[in-house]
Amino acid sequence: MDQGLMDGPSSVQADAFSFRAGVTTMVDVGSAGYRSFPKFKETSIDGSQTRILALINIAGEGMRGGPFEQTTKDMIPRRAAEVAKKYPDVVVGFKLAHYSGHEWGPVDSLMAAGKMANLPVMVDFGGATPPLSLEELLLKKFRPGDIFTHAYAYFPDSRESVIDENGKVKPYIFEAQKKGIKFDVGHGGGSFRWKVAVPSIQQGFYADAISTDLHTGSMNGGMKDMANTMSKFLALGLPLQDVINRSTWQPALMINRPELGNLSVGTEADVAIFSISKGDFGFIDIGTDKLKGTQKLVAELTIRAGRIVWDLNGLAAVEFKK
Questions:
Q1: What is the overall mean pLDDT for the chain?
Q2: Parallel, antiparallel, or unpaired: how do β-strands 121-124 and 91-97 relate?
Q3: What phi, psi does 271 have (nearest 5°)?
Q4: Distance CA 64, CA 5 (A)
Q5: Which helix (H) or strand (E) holds 173?
Q6: What does the alpha-carbon distance between residue 243 and residue 247 come to, in Å, rounded to a whole number?
Q7: Is the pLDDT score of 173 beyond 60?
Q8: pLDDT over 70 at 7, yes or no
Q9: pLDDT of residue 123
Q10: I want to staple 60 with a disulfide (CB 3.0 to 4.6 A). Which of 27, 33, 82, 234 is the partner?
């Protein structure tokens, strides 16, 4: 049976893709629902060197694909909240993704779970005809701290973009940011377009969190990995310090984990050392459009909980003497 993004062919093992890109903590955003989360925790989280946190999908089976993500009767807020309360060290919020109907029921169920567990929610508009109102989601449904992902996506026929037909960022996007709504890049294999990202950045709309939406489709497409995704924002003109901030500290605050994403005294020793390669680079979005850049981040050394887990050029190794 097709498992979609939940324990299926598009899934990836965290340790195989984290440290080599300078990542020590991943947040799985909704692969597992309240029914499938115990198995997901056992098979994917418990044995991982990478710290893995999770958003619980409001759909009981998670991102299993097909009818599993469309069955509203299996979107039960109480069940999702119970799982979150059972695993407070791991669960940091709730997710709605890929729903295709033109009604607010699934969002309302998601919001109910968030309120029951006092945790943030994340929405990935799956698509609807006509599209659901992004303004209503952000300004009427969301609470401060809730998260809209795929901020720079472009699907004009099925979901609203943050820009209008003239490339202008819609005024309510800035209003939502002032309200405390958070925006996540969520690059993925289909949700990052230069035609949205470039004018958005030029007009001052910056996503709060730079993130990958890692799966087999995105890692072999324009996204590639976290270091490459961060490099895209250097190419967009963001200062290096801002890129790092939106890749570490800001995401940690969004999931209410201030002990992560910083190097303060007493925090766990999760450290990534990058070099910056200078050259003529091309960064692809999810289509065929390329943005040129002169800098690329390369993960040289990654330390997880005080132990070296990635050393690209032997920075910590002893030089061999013939």
A1: 95
A2: parallel
A3: -135, 140
A4: 6
A5: helix 171-179
A6: 6
A7: yes
A8: no
A9: 97
A10: 33
Contact predicate 270/305, CB 8 Å = yes
DSSP characters over 44-109: IITT-SSEEEEEEESSTT-S--GGGGT-GGG--HHHHHHHHHH-TTTEEEEEEE----SSSHHHHH
User: Which residue matches tokens 């958003």?
Assistant: 55
pLDDT above 60 (res 131): yes
pTM tops 0.85: yes
Report yes or no: 186 and 211 within 8 Å, Cβ to Cβ: yes
Mean pLDDT value across residues 202-230: 95
Q: Percent of the chain at pLDDT above 90?
A: 86
pLDDT (tens digit, 9 = 90+) per residue, 43-55? 999 999 999 999 9
Q: What is the pLDDT of residue 1?
A: 44
Distances (CA, A) of 264 to 6, 110, 248, 261, 290: 35, 34, 13, 9, 38
Domain ranges in the chain are 14-266
pLDDT in tens, 228-260: 999 999 999 999 999 999 999 999 999 999 999
Q: DSSP label at 277?
A: E
Q: What is 198-209 written as a DSSP string?
A: HHHHHTT---SB
pLDDT at position 156 is 87
Question: In b/e form, how buried is each residue of 195-221, taking b as 16+ CB within 10 angstroms?
Answer: ebbbbbbeeebbbbbbbbbbbebbbeb
Return the sign of the alpha-carbon dihedral for residues 98, 104, 108, 109.
negative
Tell me how crowded residue 266 is: count the other CB atoms within 10 A of its CB: 5
Q: Which two tokens stand for residue 177?
A: 């940011």
CATH architecture assigned to 14-266: Alpha-Beta Barrel (3.20)
Return d(Cα 294, Cα 169) in angstroms, integer.
Answer: 27
The 10 Å Cβ neighbour count of residue 296 is: 20
